[in-house]
Amino acid sequence: MKHPITYLLAVLATVAFFSGTAIADTYEGRAKCSSCHKSQAKAWKDTAHAKAMESLKPGTRKEAKVKAKLDPEKDYTQDKDCVGCHVDGFGKKGGYTIETAKKPLAAVGCESCHGPGKNYRGDHRKAGQAFESKGTTTQRKVVADKGQDFHFEEACAACHLNYEGSPWKGAKAPYTPFTPAVDPKYTFNFDKMVKDVKAMHEHYKLDGTFVGEPKFKYHDEFQASAKEKTGDKKDKGKE
Ligand code: HEC
Ligand code: HEC
Ligand code: HEC
Ligand code: HEC
Protein backbone atom coordinates (compact mmCIF):
# COMPACT_ATOMS: atom_id res chain seq x y z
CA MET A 1 0.00 0.00 0.00
CA LYS A 2 1.10 3.56 -0.70
CA HIS A 3 2.40 5.66 2.14
CA PRO A 4 -0.46 7.90 3.44
CA ILE A 5 1.56 11.09 2.68
CA THR A 6 2.21 9.96 -0.89
CA TYR A 7 -1.51 9.26 -1.22
CA LEU A 8 -2.41 12.68 0.18
CA LEU A 9 0.03 14.38 -2.22
CA ALA A 10 -1.46 12.46 -5.12
CA VAL A 11 -4.96 13.60 -4.13
CA LEU A 12 -3.81 17.19 -3.80
CA ALA A 13 -2.08 17.05 -7.18
CA THR A 14 -5.28 15.71 -8.75
CA VAL A 15 -7.37 18.46 -7.15
CA ALA A 16 -4.88 21.09 -8.34
CA PHE A 17 -4.94 19.57 -11.82
CA PHE A 18 -8.71 19.59 -12.11
CA SER A 19 -9.21 23.05 -10.65
CA GLY A 20 -6.55 24.08 -13.17
CA THR A 21 -8.49 22.63 -16.10
CA ALA A 22 -11.76 24.05 -14.79
CA ILE A 23 -10.41 27.51 -15.52
CA ALA A 24 -8.42 26.35 -18.55
CA ASP A 25 -7.32 29.32 -20.61
CA THR A 26 -9.27 29.50 -23.84
CA TYR A 27 -8.72 31.82 -26.80
CA GLU A 28 -11.70 33.37 -28.57
CA GLY A 29 -10.22 35.89 -30.97
CA ARG A 30 -9.94 39.64 -31.00
CA ALA A 31 -13.52 40.37 -32.11
CA LYS A 32 -14.66 39.79 -28.52
CA CYS A 33 -12.27 42.40 -27.12
CA SER A 34 -12.64 44.82 -29.99
CA SER A 35 -16.40 45.15 -29.61
CA CYS A 36 -15.80 47.02 -26.32
CA HIS A 37 -12.26 48.38 -26.78
CA LYS A 38 -12.81 50.12 -30.11
CA SER A 39 -10.00 52.66 -29.70
CA GLN A 40 -7.30 50.07 -29.04
CA ALA A 41 -8.70 47.80 -31.75
CA LYS A 42 -8.50 50.58 -34.32
CA ALA A 43 -4.97 51.55 -33.26
CA TRP A 44 -3.86 47.90 -33.25
CA LYS A 45 -4.83 47.53 -36.93
CA ASP A 46 -1.97 49.86 -37.91
CA THR A 47 0.69 47.92 -35.99
CA ALA A 48 3.28 45.45 -37.26
CA HIS A 49 1.59 42.75 -35.17
CA ALA A 50 -1.69 43.19 -37.07
CA LYS A 51 0.14 42.51 -40.32
CA ALA A 52 2.06 39.45 -39.15
CA MET A 53 0.18 37.10 -41.49
CA GLU A 54 0.99 39.27 -44.52
CA SER A 55 4.69 38.62 -43.95
CA LEU A 56 4.15 34.88 -44.48
CA LYS A 57 2.73 35.40 -47.98
CA PRO A 58 4.91 34.80 -51.06
CA GLY A 59 6.67 37.83 -52.47
CA THR A 60 6.59 39.83 -49.21
CA ARG A 61 9.62 40.93 -47.14
CA LYS A 62 11.91 39.46 -49.79
CA GLU A 63 15.12 41.01 -48.53
CA ALA A 64 14.55 39.97 -44.92
CA LYS A 65 13.65 36.43 -45.98
CA VAL A 66 16.73 35.97 -48.15
CA LYS A 67 18.92 37.20 -45.32
CA ALA A 68 17.32 34.63 -42.97
CA LYS A 69 17.80 31.88 -45.61
CA LEU A 70 14.09 31.59 -46.35
CA ASP A 71 12.55 31.30 -49.84
CA PRO A 72 10.96 34.68 -50.68
CA GLU A 73 8.61 33.09 -53.25
CA LYS A 74 7.30 30.38 -50.93
CA ASP A 75 3.85 30.57 -49.28
CA TYR A 76 4.45 30.10 -45.55
CA THR A 77 0.88 30.94 -44.45
CA GLN A 78 0.07 27.26 -43.86
CA ASP A 79 3.46 26.19 -42.57
CA LYS A 80 3.29 24.88 -39.01
CA ASP A 81 6.87 25.97 -38.41
CA CYS A 82 5.87 29.58 -39.07
CA VAL A 83 2.26 30.38 -38.19
CA GLY A 84 2.68 29.68 -34.45
CA CYS A 85 4.20 33.11 -33.79
CA HIS A 86 2.19 35.01 -36.39
CA VAL A 87 -1.28 34.18 -34.94
CA ASP A 88 -3.10 33.91 -31.57
CA GLY A 89 -2.96 30.78 -29.43
CA PHE A 90 -1.56 28.32 -31.98
CA GLY A 91 -1.74 24.78 -30.57
CA LYS A 92 -3.69 26.02 -27.54
CA LYS A 93 -7.35 25.69 -26.56
CA GLY A 94 -9.58 27.78 -28.83
CA GLY A 95 -6.52 29.10 -30.67
CA TYR A 96 -5.71 29.39 -34.37
CA THR A 97 -5.44 26.23 -36.42
CA ILE A 98 -4.17 25.89 -39.98
CA GLU A 99 -7.23 23.81 -40.93
CA THR A 100 -9.86 26.32 -39.76
CA ALA A 101 -7.80 29.54 -40.14
CA LYS A 102 -10.23 31.84 -38.32
CA LYS A 103 -9.66 35.48 -39.17
CA PRO A 104 -10.11 36.93 -35.64
CA LEU A 105 -7.21 34.70 -34.54
CA ALA A 106 -4.91 35.40 -37.50
CA ALA A 107 -2.02 37.86 -36.80
CA VAL A 108 -0.71 38.76 -33.34
CA GLY A 109 -3.87 40.02 -31.64
CA CYS A 110 -5.11 41.10 -28.23
CA GLU A 111 -4.97 37.70 -26.57
CA SER A 112 -1.35 37.02 -27.58
CA CYS A 113 -0.33 39.78 -25.16
CA HIS A 114 -3.24 40.17 -22.73
CA GLY A 115 -3.85 36.43 -22.33
CA PRO A 116 -6.63 34.13 -23.59
CA GLY A 117 -9.85 35.99 -22.83
CA LYS A 118 -12.73 33.55 -22.49
CA ASN A 119 -12.53 33.42 -18.71
CA TYR A 120 -11.92 37.07 -17.90
CA ARG A 121 -13.77 39.10 -20.49
CA GLY A 122 -17.11 38.60 -18.72
CA ASP A 123 -15.55 40.15 -15.63
CA HIS A 124 -14.62 43.22 -17.66
CA ARG A 125 -18.28 43.71 -18.47
CA LYS A 126 -19.30 43.22 -14.83
CA ALA A 127 -16.55 45.50 -13.58
CA GLY A 128 -17.52 48.18 -16.11
CA GLN A 129 -21.17 48.03 -15.08
CA ALA A 130 -20.38 48.14 -11.35
CA PHE A 131 -18.13 51.14 -11.91
CA GLU A 132 -20.68 52.93 -14.06
CA SER A 133 -23.63 52.40 -11.73
CA LYS A 134 -22.03 52.68 -8.28
CA GLY A 135 -18.43 53.72 -8.81
CA THR A 136 -17.31 50.35 -7.46
CA THR A 137 -13.78 49.37 -8.50
CA THR A 138 -12.56 45.81 -9.18
CA GLN A 139 -9.22 44.37 -8.14
CA ARG A 140 -6.95 43.41 -11.06
CA LYS A 141 -6.26 40.18 -9.15
CA VAL A 142 -9.78 38.97 -10.03
CA VAL A 143 -9.02 38.97 -13.75
CA ALA A 144 -5.34 38.03 -13.34
CA ASP A 145 -6.50 34.83 -11.60
CA LYS A 146 -8.58 34.09 -14.71
CA GLY A 147 -5.68 34.39 -17.10
CA GLN A 148 -5.32 38.11 -17.90
CA ASP A 149 -1.62 38.93 -18.23
CA PHE A 150 -0.30 42.11 -16.61
CA HIS A 151 3.43 41.41 -17.01
CA PHE A 152 3.71 40.69 -20.75
CA GLU A 153 7.42 39.79 -20.69
CA GLU A 154 6.94 36.02 -20.92
CA ALA A 155 4.30 36.44 -23.62
CA CYS A 156 6.62 38.51 -25.81
CA ALA A 157 9.54 36.17 -25.11
CA ALA A 158 7.61 33.14 -26.35
CA CYS A 159 7.77 34.64 -29.85
CA HIS A 160 10.65 37.10 -29.82
CA LEU A 161 13.19 35.13 -27.80
CA ASN A 162 12.37 31.70 -29.09
CA TYR A 163 15.56 30.65 -30.88
CA GLU A 164 18.55 28.41 -30.28
CA GLY A 165 21.08 29.99 -27.93
CA SER A 166 18.49 32.47 -26.65
CA PRO A 167 18.89 33.99 -23.18
CA TRP A 168 15.24 32.93 -22.58
CA LYS A 169 14.98 29.58 -20.80
CA GLY A 170 11.71 28.50 -22.41
CA ALA A 171 13.06 28.32 -25.97
CA LYS A 172 11.97 25.29 -28.02
CA ALA A 173 11.43 24.51 -31.72
CA PRO A 174 9.95 25.77 -33.99
CA TYR A 175 12.27 28.75 -33.64
CA THR A 176 12.06 32.20 -35.16
CA PRO A 177 14.29 32.59 -38.23
CA PHE A 178 14.91 36.24 -37.27
CA THR A 179 17.58 36.19 -34.59
CA PRO A 180 20.29 38.67 -33.49
CA ALA A 181 22.79 36.46 -35.39
CA VAL A 182 20.92 37.19 -38.65
CA ASP A 183 20.80 40.92 -37.86
CA PRO A 184 21.41 42.72 -34.55
CA LYS A 185 18.16 44.63 -35.14
CA TYR A 186 16.28 41.46 -34.17
CA THR A 187 17.63 41.65 -30.61
CA PHE A 188 14.66 41.79 -28.25
CA ASN A 189 14.82 44.40 -25.53
CA PHE A 190 11.51 44.34 -23.64
CA ASP A 191 11.70 47.78 -22.06
CA LYS A 192 12.44 49.42 -25.38
CA MET A 193 10.17 47.27 -27.58
CA VAL A 194 7.09 47.56 -25.36
CA LYS A 195 7.14 51.30 -26.14
CA ASP A 196 7.70 50.88 -29.88
CA VAL A 197 4.77 52.55 -31.63
CA LYS A 198 5.35 50.55 -34.83
CA ALA A 199 4.28 47.39 -33.10
CA MET A 200 2.24 48.44 -30.05
CA HIS A 201 -1.24 49.99 -30.13
CA GLU A 202 -1.65 53.49 -28.78
CA HIS A 203 -2.83 53.92 -25.21
CA TYR A 204 -6.14 55.45 -24.21
CA LYS A 205 -7.21 56.91 -20.88
CA LEU A 206 -8.91 54.47 -18.54
CA ASP A 207 -11.66 55.45 -16.08
CA GLY A 208 -9.94 53.51 -13.30
CA THR A 209 -12.36 50.57 -13.10
CA PHE A 210 -9.54 48.14 -12.27
CA VAL A 211 -7.25 48.81 -9.33
CA GLY A 212 -4.49 47.12 -7.32
CA GLU A 213 -1.79 44.60 -8.15
CA PRO A 214 -0.72 43.13 -10.48
CA LYS A 215 -0.37 46.43 -12.32
CA PHE A 216 1.89 46.65 -15.37
CA LYS A 217 5.13 48.43 -14.55
CA TYR A 218 4.62 51.12 -17.20
CA HIS A 219 0.87 51.47 -16.58
CA ASP A 220 1.06 54.90 -14.93
CA GLU A 221 3.57 56.15 -17.49
CA PHE A 222 1.35 55.02 -20.38
CA GLN A 223 -1.77 56.48 -18.76
CA ALA A 224 -0.05 59.82 -18.16
CA SER A 225 0.34 60.33 -21.90
CA ALA A 226 -2.74 58.35 -23.02
CA LYS A 227 -5.28 59.71 -25.50
CA GLU A 228 -9.01 60.11 -24.86
CA LYS A 229 -10.86 57.01 -26.09
CA THR A 230 -13.41 57.46 -28.81
CA GLY A 231 -16.49 55.36 -29.46
CA ASP A 232 -15.78 52.60 -26.96
CA LYS A 233 -18.90 50.60 -26.21
CA LYS A 234 -19.15 51.71 -22.62
CA ASP A 235 -19.48 55.31 -23.73
CA LYS A 236 -22.34 54.66 -26.13
CA GLY A 237 -25.65 56.26 -25.38
CA LYS A 238 -24.21 58.67 -22.84
CA GLU A 239 -24.83 61.80 -24.89
C1 HEC B 1 2.45 35.51 -30.96
C2 HEC B 1 3.82 36.00 -31.14
C3 HEC B 1 4.18 37.39 -30.69
C4 HEC B 1 3.97 37.96 -29.45
C5 HEC B 1 3.26 37.37 -28.24
C6 HEC B 1 4.58 39.27 -29.50
N1 HEC B 1 5.11 39.50 -30.73
FE1 HEC B 1 6.06 41.20 -31.34
N2 HEC B 1 6.16 40.46 -33.25
C7 HEC B 1 5.75 39.21 -33.62
C8 HEC B 1 5.90 39.08 -35.06
C9 HEC B 1 5.58 37.85 -35.89
C10 HEC B 1 6.39 40.32 -35.52
C11 HEC B 1 6.70 40.70 -36.98
C12 HEC B 1 5.44 41.18 -37.63
C13 HEC B 1 5.69 41.40 -39.11
O1 HEC B 1 6.40 42.37 -39.43
O2 HEC B 1 5.21 40.61 -39.89
C14 HEC B 1 6.55 41.17 -34.34
C15 HEC B 1 7.04 42.48 -34.38
C16 HEC B 1 7.32 43.24 -33.24
C17 HEC B 1 7.97 44.50 -33.23
C18 HEC B 1 8.45 45.26 -34.47
C19 HEC B 1 9.87 44.87 -34.75
C20 HEC B 1 10.40 45.64 -35.89
O3 HEC B 1 10.95 45.00 -36.80
O4 HEC B 1 10.29 46.86 -35.91
C21 HEC B 1 8.08 44.92 -31.93
C22 HEC B 1 8.71 46.20 -31.41
C23 HEC B 1 7.46 43.89 -31.12
N3 HEC B 1 7.00 42.90 -31.95
C24 HEC B 1 7.34 43.95 -29.74
C25 HEC B 1 6.61 43.03 -28.96
C26 HEC B 1 6.35 43.16 -27.55
C27 HEC B 1 6.91 44.26 -26.66
C28 HEC B 1 5.58 42.10 -27.20
C29 HEC B 1 5.01 41.78 -25.86
C30 HEC B 1 4.29 42.86 -25.17
C31 HEC B 1 5.36 41.30 -28.39
N4 HEC B 1 6.00 41.90 -29.43
C32 HEC B 1 4.61 40.14 -28.43
C33 HEC B 1 5.30 38.20 -32.81
C34 HEC B 1 4.91 38.37 -31.50
C1 HEC C 1 9.21 31.43 -32.46
C2 HEC C 1 8.39 32.39 -33.14
C3 HEC C 1 8.49 32.54 -34.64
C4 HEC C 1 8.45 31.56 -35.59
C5 HEC C 1 8.34 30.05 -35.39
C6 HEC C 1 8.51 32.25 -36.86
N1 HEC C 1 8.55 33.59 -36.67
FE1 HEC C 1 8.53 35.04 -38.11
N2 HEC C 1 8.86 36.45 -36.71
C7 HEC C 1 8.84 36.24 -35.36
C8 HEC C 1 9.15 37.48 -34.67
C9 HEC C 1 9.23 37.67 -33.17
C10 HEC C 1 9.37 38.45 -35.66
C11 HEC C 1 9.75 39.92 -35.45
C12 HEC C 1 11.26 40.05 -35.40
C13 HEC C 1 11.71 41.49 -35.23
O1 HEC C 1 11.42 42.30 -36.13
O2 HEC C 1 12.35 41.78 -34.23
C14 HEC C 1 9.17 37.76 -36.94
C15 HEC C 1 9.27 38.40 -38.17
C16 HEC C 1 9.08 37.77 -39.37
C17 HEC C 1 9.19 38.42 -40.67
C18 HEC C 1 9.50 39.91 -40.90
C19 HEC C 1 11.01 40.11 -40.87
C20 HEC C 1 11.41 41.51 -41.30
O3 HEC C 1 12.51 41.95 -40.88
O4 HEC C 1 10.67 42.15 -42.03
C21 HEC C 1 8.96 37.46 -41.63
C22 HEC C 1 8.99 37.65 -43.12
C23 HEC C 1 8.73 36.21 -40.91
N3 HEC C 1 8.79 36.44 -39.54
C24 HEC C 1 8.51 35.00 -41.54
C25 HEC C 1 8.55 33.78 -40.88
C26 HEC C 1 8.60 32.51 -41.58
C27 HEC C 1 8.58 32.33 -43.07
C28 HEC C 1 8.64 31.54 -40.61
C29 HEC C 1 8.73 30.04 -40.79
C30 HEC C 1 9.84 29.56 -41.59
C31 HEC C 1 8.60 32.23 -39.31
N4 HEC C 1 8.55 33.58 -39.53
C32 HEC C 1 8.58 31.59 -38.08
C33 HEC C 1 8.59 35.06 -34.71
C34 HEC C 1 8.54 33.82 -35.33
C1 HEC D 1 1.90 43.24 -28.65
C2 HEC D 1 1.16 43.23 -27.41
C3 HEC D 1 -0.25 43.77 -27.36
C4 HEC D 1 -1.28 43.53 -28.23
C5 HEC D 1 -1.24 42.69 -29.49
C6 HEC D 1 -2.43 44.22 -27.71
N1 HEC D 1 -2.11 44.88 -26.55
FE1 HEC D 1 -3.35 46.02 -25.41
N2 HEC D 1 -1.79 46.58 -24.26
C7 HEC D 1 -0.50 46.09 -24.35
C8 HEC D 1 0.32 46.72 -23.34
C9 HEC D 1 1.79 46.46 -23.08
C10 HEC D 1 -0.55 47.62 -22.62
C11 HEC D 1 -0.20 48.53 -21.44
C12 HEC D 1 -0.78 47.92 -20.18
C13 HEC D 1 -0.94 48.88 -19.06
O1 HEC D 1 -0.59 50.05 -19.20
O2 HEC D 1 -1.43 48.45 -18.00
C14 HEC D 1 -1.86 47.49 -23.24
C15 HEC D 1 -2.99 48.21 -22.80
C16 HEC D 1 -4.27 47.94 -23.21
C17 HEC D 1 -5.47 48.53 -22.62
C18 HEC D 1 -5.48 49.49 -21.46
C19 HEC D 1 -5.65 50.94 -21.92
C20 HEC D 1 -4.58 51.40 -22.84
O3 HEC D 1 -4.93 51.80 -23.97
O4 HEC D 1 -3.38 51.35 -22.49
C21 HEC D 1 -6.54 48.01 -23.31
C22 HEC D 1 -8.00 48.30 -23.05
C23 HEC D 1 -6.01 47.12 -24.33
N3 HEC D 1 -4.63 47.10 -24.25
C24 HEC D 1 -6.77 46.41 -25.23
C25 HEC D 1 -6.24 45.71 -26.32
C26 HEC D 1 -7.04 45.17 -27.40
C27 HEC D 1 -8.53 45.28 -27.51
C28 HEC D 1 -6.17 44.57 -28.27
C29 HEC D 1 -6.49 43.86 -29.58
C30 HEC D 1 -7.23 44.62 -30.59
C31 HEC D 1 -4.83 44.72 -27.73
N4 HEC D 1 -4.92 45.42 -26.56
C32 HEC D 1 -3.68 44.21 -28.30
C33 HEC D 1 -0.06 45.14 -25.25
C34 HEC D 1 -0.78 44.63 -26.30
C1 HEC E 1 -18.10 43.99 -22.33
C2 HEC E 1 -17.02 44.90 -22.65
C3 HEC E 1 -15.59 44.39 -22.54
C4 HEC E 1 -15.03 43.30 -23.18
C5 HEC E 1 -15.71 42.26 -24.05
C6 HEC E 1 -13.62 43.34 -22.85
N1 HEC E 1 -13.35 44.39 -22.02
FE1 HEC E 1 -11.52 44.97 -21.34
N2 HEC E 1 -12.39 46.37 -20.16
C7 HEC E 1 -13.73 46.73 -20.20
C8 HEC E 1 -13.97 47.82 -19.27
C9 HEC E 1 -15.29 48.49 -19.01
C10 HEC E 1 -12.71 48.10 -18.67
C11 HEC E 1 -12.40 49.21 -17.68
C12 HEC E 1 -12.09 50.44 -18.51
C13 HEC E 1 -11.75 51.68 -17.72
O1 HEC E 1 -11.46 51.62 -16.53
O2 HEC E 1 -11.76 52.75 -18.37
C14 HEC E 1 -11.74 47.19 -19.28
C15 HEC E 1 -10.38 47.21 -19.00
C16 HEC E 1 -9.42 46.53 -19.75
C17 HEC E 1 -7.99 46.69 -19.60
C18 HEC E 1 -7.28 47.59 -18.62
C19 HEC E 1 -6.89 46.83 -17.37
C20 HEC E 1 -6.17 47.68 -16.35
O3 HEC E 1 -5.03 47.32 -15.98
O4 HEC E 1 -6.74 48.67 -15.88
C21 HEC E 1 -7.41 45.85 -20.52
C22 HEC E 1 -5.92 45.64 -20.74
C23 HEC E 1 -8.47 45.18 -21.23
N3 HEC E 1 -9.68 45.61 -20.73
C24 HEC E 1 -8.28 44.23 -22.23
C25 HEC E 1 -9.30 43.44 -22.77
C26 HEC E 1 -9.10 42.31 -23.64
C27 HEC E 1 -7.75 41.83 -24.13
C28 HEC E 1 -10.33 41.80 -23.94
C29 HEC E 1 -10.66 40.58 -24.79
C30 HEC E 1 -10.13 39.31 -24.32
C31 HEC E 1 -11.32 42.61 -23.25
N4 HEC E 1 -10.65 43.57 -22.54
C32 HEC E 1 -12.68 42.44 -23.33
C33 HEC E 1 -14.70 46.17 -21.00
C34 HEC E 1 -14.54 45.05 -21.81
From TrEMBL:
The keyword Ubl conjugation does not apply. InterPro entries: Cyt_c-552/4, Cytochrome_c-554-like, Multihaem_cyt_sf, Multiheme_Cytochr_ET. It holds the Pfam family Cytochrome_C554. Residues 32-115 form the Cytochrome c-552/4 domain. Gene3D superfamilies: Flavocytochrome C3, Chain A. Keywords: Signal. This is Cytochrome c554 and c-prime. Residues 1-24 form the signal peptide.
